[in-house]
Amino acid sequence: GDSVTQMEGPVTLSEEAFLTINCTYTATGYPSLFWYVQYPGEGLQLLLKATKADDKGSNKGFEATYRKETTSFHLEKGSVQVSDSAVYFCALIPNDYKLSFGAGTTVTVRA
Amino acid sequence: NAGVTQTPKFQVLKTGQSMTLQCAQDMNHNSMYWYRQDPGMGLRLIYYSASEGTTDKGEVPNGYNVSRLNKREFSLRLESAAPSQTSVYFCASSIEALYEAFFGQGTRLTVV
Lengths: 111, 112
Fold this sequence. Notes:
Radius of gyration of chain A: 13 Å
Number of helices of chain B: 0
Low-confidence stretches of chain A: none
Largest interface: A-B, 20 and 27 residues
Structural class of chain B: mainly beta
Oligomer: heterodimer
Number of helices of chain A: 0
Order of helices and strands of chain A: EEEEEEEEEEEE
Shape of chain B: globular
Number of strands of chain A: 12
Number of strands of chain B: 11
């Protein structure tokens, strides 16, 4: 079935470093793609999304581009802050409409 | 702005006990979801409801039942709890399937 695979963590960075979290998907058709973020002790919240090929989602300095040719939706941020420490989930909505998540990547940013 | 409300927040059960996790949303959303979150496994879909009165199995439905009696509420029932069901459970909703999902704060369930 349709699924996403994201890079395993944990990832530890210094403040102002560049962050990339890789996400690739397997799907029939063209799913909508998402990045969700989970801060400690909270539920998930949408970070950004893209609904078709070549779309770029962006929010809070994070970006991800829907690449059909490489079936990827990598998350990037040019300069991370301590407040970006969280678990990041890549997700997709396939043809059966059941929102499906990757395993999550824990990111820790140190001052 | 309540959004998605889950109760209880914490629960400890003995093996074989039953319980119902409650979820309610006040955003007039059609789609609702139940997930479980386990270390290293991400979120796995237990059940999905596209609209009031309809439910569909997700990736890990065994040992669970759900009920979508009205548009607001989507409950998850464990009939006979097992230690393997120790997890954090999240309820979510979205206006329609292709739109942003909003999550509750989660229920941390321990089965001993």
